[in-house]
């Protein structure tokens, strides 16, 4: 019995010990605020040494000044590409450089190494057949790997006297790492989602303090596939109503407003599963149920951040009494002497939530509303911080508040950073418009240098300023590509099958024939399309070739090549993914890399197959026009041409003579040949060249 009790005690204390290792208790002021740093898409490359050089030059000193509680590096630590961008594989020299630079940065920052969390991105997984294998350099050289964080989900809690701040990171890269370009999606498994759910529930029944939950990963949710059971990351995040999901992957090439507000929807089958047309899914409900504690609001923000690769961006994220805010810093122009992060009021474009709106409407306003607050990080002592509020009601920014801010100090306590506050009458800024009032903070250091924040709108009521995406931002953030892939694929193929089979069906079942003469006699879009399609059907070899090719795209491999960085085994790709064999030789893994293969499949259909289909149809139509033109011009008539047709041809002789030069030289046909050559170039030079190179250089 004593032995059993001893074992139970050891188990209990062992678990508690493990839990305590995942909790950081902050020391010093300000106690109400926790801030972390996020970096993403570093892409250290042997071909671009400036990335590592600038990282070493700027990030270490910046972290020393900022003194964050955590540093989160959300994927794509190395580039994994050749200089010509055609070969994608792991390069150990890049990983050695990453390890060495990070060790130096950590030393210069003065932070403990355990405060750094780095994640695997798709570039860190190019050509890695198995996690833990000889090509898995992430496990060997990354900070997580060196510290033994081998799980797909890792969490850390930063605790202050007022609340807990739970940060949960996860690795959703492919378990079998394909080489590019078909490695662009996150692939969370059911086990990963279960572990993520468990970690986000860590303090649900144990903590008397409020808990703010933040999750971080590499892939945006628009580039994350569902698990085998159909469950998604969004489902887990909505269940726990996390405050924010931090990610990278998209850089800034598609736009700077790569943010998205997610809300639960009662419509199980809706366009929301495929699209979200604006940054904000819906408006607030007019009817507010009070008290807000009884509400079950499921929502969260998704914030994609810019890359270090080209844009040298760093993000500081702060949680101030539960209010989550951030500021992005650009190091392209050099180091920053002073950085300001307003923590309250929140930016109504990117940070307002339904819960804050409900709390305000229910008059359940926390004491944190009573002051304007901002974190100031500076390499030199700050002598003045001023908050300014502008009213844009009449179209201009009219200054309505200008107040000096004071730094929070407590005797006999160390300082983690400088939080400046100033009391204000927040009720004076109640307004139905989310962008009437704008906040700006200015800091002046002892050297006389002035730093201004950008003007940011705020809404004390919690209203959201509806900021629309550009079309590129919508494509990468608003479209759920994993759900759209198969509908787009089958729609494209279905249209081509329809265009090929419709004219055949008309001939077989209605004996209706469309010709150029019919089109001239009765010009309409339908007659023109049906005439072109029937001309295509008359060239039987071409028609059967198209039917056969479309079936080939469905039933057969598109190409074969080396999928991994090393090894003799080849894989083949179909529209449903790759069939590859692992380095362990345990057999085929069918359909690895779906929906990632869409980056090859959809461009091939839309920019090669469809243009080629229309070009061949146009060529056959030109052939028919030329035949009729030559018959009319030479005076020859077919036996089955009736009198009306002859009259039509007679009336058209003058126009035919005028266009004789055009048709005799067949310039239209030559132009269509140029189009066909362009399609061939698009196919072979752009689509197949990277694949051919990756196959040839797989062992280089």
UniProtKB/TrEMBL annotation:
Residues 1-17 form the signal peptide. Residues 486-685 form the TMEM62 C-terminal domain. InterPro entries: Calcineurin-like_PHP, Ig_TMM62, Metallo-depent_PP-like, TMEM62_C. The chain crosses the membrane at residues 484-502, 542-560, 597-621. It comes from the Eukaryota. Residues 36-252 form the Calcineurin-like phosphoesterase domain. Gene3D superfamilies: 3.60.21.10. Keywords: Membrane, Signal, Transmembrane, Transmembrane helix. GO terms for molecular function: hydrolase activity. This is Uncharacterized protein. It comes from Lupinus angustifolius.
């Amino acid at each position: 019995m004593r032995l059993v009790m001893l074992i139970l005690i050891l188990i209990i204390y062992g678990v508690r010990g493990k839990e305590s290792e995942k909790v950081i208790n902050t020391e010093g002021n300000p106690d109400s605020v926790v801030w972390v740093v996020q970096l993403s898409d570093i892409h250290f490359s042997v071909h671009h040494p400036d990335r590592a050089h600038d990282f070493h030059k700027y990030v270490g000193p910046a972290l020393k000044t900022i003194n964050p509680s955590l540093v989160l590096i959300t994927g794509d630590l190395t580039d994994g590409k050749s200089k010509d961008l055609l070969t994608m594989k792991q390069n150990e020299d890049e990983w050695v450089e990453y390890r060495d630079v990070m060790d130096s940065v950590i030393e210069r920052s003065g932070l403990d190494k355990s405060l750094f969390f780095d994640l695997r991105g798709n570039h860190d997984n190019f050509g890695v057949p198995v996690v833990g294998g000889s090509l898995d350099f992430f496990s060997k050289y990354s900070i997580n790997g060196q510290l033994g964080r081998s799980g797909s989900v890792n969490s850390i809690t930063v605790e202050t006297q007022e609340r807990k701040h739970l940060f949960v990171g996860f690795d959703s890269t492919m378990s079998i790492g394909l080489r590019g370009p078909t490695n662009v999606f996150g692939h969370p498994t059911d086990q990963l989602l279960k572990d993520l759910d468990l970690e986000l529930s860590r303090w649900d029944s144990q903590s008397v303090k409020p808990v703010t939950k933040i999750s971080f990963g590499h892939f945006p949710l628009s580039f994350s596939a569902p698990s085998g059971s159909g469950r998604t990351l969004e489902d887990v995040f909505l269940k726990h109503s996390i405050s924010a999901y931090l990610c990278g992957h998209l850089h800034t090439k598609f736009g700077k407003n790569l943010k998205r507000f997610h809300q639960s929807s009662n419509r199980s089958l809706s366009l929301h599963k495929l699209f979200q047309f604006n940054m904000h899914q819906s408006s607030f409900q007019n009817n507010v149920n009070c008290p807000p504690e009884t509400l079950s609001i499921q929502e969260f923000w998704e914030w994609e951040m810019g890359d270090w690769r080209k844009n040298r961006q760093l993000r500081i994220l702060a949680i101030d009494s539960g209010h989550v805010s951030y500021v992005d810093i650009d190091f392209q122009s050099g180091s920053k002497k002073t950085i300001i992060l307003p923590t309250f009021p929140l930016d109504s474009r990117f940070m307002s939530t339904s819960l804050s709106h409900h709390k305000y409407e229910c008059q359940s306003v926390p004491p944190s509303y009573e002051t304007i607050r901002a974190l100031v990080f500076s390499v030199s002592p700050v002598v003045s911080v001023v908050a300014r509020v502008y009213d844009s009601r009449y179209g201009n920014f009219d200054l309505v508040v200008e107040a000096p801010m004071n730094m929070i100090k407590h005797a006999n306590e160390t300082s983690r950073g400088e939080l400046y506050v100033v009391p204000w009458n927040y009720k004076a800024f109640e307004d139905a418009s989310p962008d009437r009032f704008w906040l700006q903070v200015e800091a002046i250091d002892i050297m006389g240098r002035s730093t201004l924040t950008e003007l940011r709108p705020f809404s004390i009521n919690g209203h959201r300023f509806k900021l629309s995406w550009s079309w590129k931002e919508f494509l990468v953030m608003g479209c759920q590509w994993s759900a759209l892939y198969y509908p787009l694929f089958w729609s494209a193929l279905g249209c081509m099958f329809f265009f090929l089979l419709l004219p055949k069906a008309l001939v077989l079942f209605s004996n209706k024939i469309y010709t150029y003469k019919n089109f001239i006699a009765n010009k309409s879009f339908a007659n023109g399309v049906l005439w072109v399609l029937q001309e295509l059907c008359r060239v039987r070899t071409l028609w059967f070739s198209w039917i056969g090719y479309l079936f080939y795209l469905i039933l057969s491999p598109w190409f074969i090549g080396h999928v991994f960085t090393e090894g003799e085994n080849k894989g083949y790709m179909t529209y449903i993914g790759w069939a590859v064999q692992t380095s362990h030789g345990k057999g085929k893994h069918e359909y690895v890399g779906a929906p990632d293969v869409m980056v090859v499949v959809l461009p091939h259909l839309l920019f090669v197959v469809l243009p080629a289909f229309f070009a061949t149809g146009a060529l056959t139509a030109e052939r028919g026009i030329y035949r009729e033109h030559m018959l009319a011009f030479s005076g020859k008539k077919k036996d089955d041409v009736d009198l009306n047709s002859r009259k039509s041809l007679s009336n058209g002789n003058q126009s035919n003579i005028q266009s004789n030069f055009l048709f005799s030289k067949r310039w239209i046909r030559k132009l269509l040949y140029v189009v066909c050559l362009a399609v061939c170039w698009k196919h072979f030079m752009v689509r197949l060249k990277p694949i051919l190179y990756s196959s040839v250089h797989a062992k280089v």
